[in-house]
Amino acid sequence: MKTQLNRVVLVTGAAQGIGRSIAETYAAQGATVIAADKEPFAPEQTTAMQTDLRDPQEIERMFRKIREQFGRLDVLINNAGVSVWKSPYELSVGEWDDILNLNLRGTFLCAREAARLMKVGGGGKIINMCSTRALMSEPNTEAYAASKGGILALTHALAVSLGPDRIQVNAISPGWIETGDYSQLREEDHTQHPSGRVGRPADIANACIYLTDPANDFITGANLVIDGGMTRKMIYLE
Predict the structure, then answer these.
(1) Residue 144 catalytic?
(2) Is residue 113 predicted with pLDDT exceeding 60?
(3) Burial class (CB in 10 A: 0-12, 13-18, 19+), 87
(4) Which pTM value belongs to this model?
């Protein structure tokens, strides 16, 4: 069933990886897709809007264009994000601010501006791309983990605030989603997952389609962990 037909969908961070897969999946289902990214690239059958989400003024300009060109917005996928793997002893204030400004502040500002359009249109769906690093960590990921933990809390706060306007807000927390050459993965990369394989971008895109199905208006404030079961697996050193 092509549930996204005739809907206007904004995907941020859409030039590559998970964001590109999400944009292509919605377009294939008949949605009008706006692909926002700092890079001047957009998947086929989408409308490119080159935007640096670190800049609040650029975000405002993007949503003015959406209002002028399309008149409404039905779905927002807040996917854009960056990280720096660096010791907390060495992480600079500038690096911290850059990650938080894009990942967390950018997510909030896009959600707020999208909600303004959705409220007028009678409702909508927002998905904030989180991470299993909001729940568990590797060394030297403090800024990224903090931004994703903030997104998780932001999601349930927005779900409560925007519920009266018929806007559902959910998060997706991907685990290992391989965006490079899948064929180069080792057998042990796959078998360490209870699912038996490493994830693909399409796994996240399919989850977005599910959460934004118009029939799923009872799901809000949720965090859907898609990690092949890794966060449920107890690991001991032998």
Answers:
(1) yes
(2) yes
(3) exposed
(4) 0.96
